[in-house]
Design a protein that fits this description.
The structure is a homodimer. The first copy, chain A, is mainly alpha-helical. Chain A has a two-stranded antiparallel sheet with strand order 1-2. In chain A, helix 4 runs antiparallel to helix 5. Chain A starts with a helix and ends in a 7-residue tail after the last helix.
Chain lengths: 207, 207
């Protein structure tokens, strides 16, 4: 199909598609003449993935690039491919803070993770931000939140292991992780609203 | 303190602070002369909050504005204030999709939430994105993820209810929700990596 139909099929404007082509997020179409290319179903699926990562995952373009590179990479070792795919969006150049609290948590949970894994530094940064803002509740209950994370990961990996094809597993890990983050966040909001209703909804004095 | 010291204390460049002042994210300082203002500790804390929402929460400026408006609002009814504060970052103009699946989930969980609550539409959008991408695992297990959300909200509200001051509760809800989202995401990654190590780390054939 021509780029205009690709735009029609995905609802993404032609200039935006051209931008993704220039950035290398979308592989080029097959040239049919000097200035015309033809696109097919994998392009439609790739554009839907980019849009979901952008709109639902709120990822910046650089992170989307990293995530797509993992989806496209060959997968000689599934654990390593999964590890990179799961954290491709987290890579950031910030310096490390409060590493000791994360290390203590990792030891407490018995988590088998690499020392340089991006999520480890991310947790350290978030702990530091909580401390700066003077809100210590969640940091003081880190292990309870880690317990929730363990239940989530158990469910996530349980779903992934029903698939056999390594490329499908990596694709599912990316989609399930990035969109799953957004899903968990939104479900948490619904559950919070309901819990707040039960706690504070009735007989709440004006204050 | 002068704006230069405010910048030094928070690590935020003076032009960025001026931008936040223009956007109304940061209340103006007290004028000490025609073109000089004085800032104090609440300005430091507000800048740290803006930075955390921006860098850890990855919120766009418009969402930060909405969230700060809730933090600053008086709280005559804590449930309503909490409800708005918890979802201030989710408000978006997209059309509603797949509302029936979310409604079924809400009924199944017995969640007491408003029909127009932003998180409800957000969940519908995410379900639609999963379906478009052809990845049905998480949608088919929505109730299991909702169960995790319930445990999280129970923990969240349990921590909030240890505080008595309504303004502190709203502040804590905002910080604990936005930074807490990022914390849960990062902890999920660590737990996933560890679970992947146990599942695929050993004896994984090249594939």
């Amino acid at each position: 199909m021509r780029i205009a139909e690709l735009s029609h099929r995905t609802g993404i404007p032609v200039p935006t598609i051209k931008y993704y082509l220039r950035e290398g997020l979308l592989p080029p179409g097959e040239l049919t003449s000097r200035n015309q290319a033809s696109y097919d179903e994998p392009h439609v699926r790739r554009l839907q993935l980019i849009r979901a990562l952008l709109e639902i995952g709120r990822l910046p373009i650089a992170s989307i690039k990293a995530v797509l590179a993992e989806v496209d990479a060959p997968t000689p070792n599934l654990h390593h491919a999964l590890g990179r795919a799961l954290q491709a969006d987290l890579i950031q150049p910030e310096p490390e803070e409060n590493g000791e609290e994360v290390d203590a948590l990792i030891a407490l949970r018995g988590w088998q993770v690499g020392h340089d894994t991006p999520a480890r530094r991310k947790v350290a940064d978030i702990i530091a931000a909580f401390r700066r803002l003077g809100w210590h509740d969640m940091v003081d209950n880190l292990d309870s939140y880690a317990d929730i994370a363990d239940r989530t990961a158990e469910l996530d990996l349980g779903l992934l292991r029903t698939h056999a094809d390594p490329e499908e597993i990596v694709y599912g890990a990316v989609v399930g992780t990035i969109l799953g983050d957004a899903l968990l966040v939104a479900l948490r909001r619904l559950a919070q609203e309901s819990a707040s209703m039960k706690l504070y909804g009735l007989n709440q004095p004006a204050g």
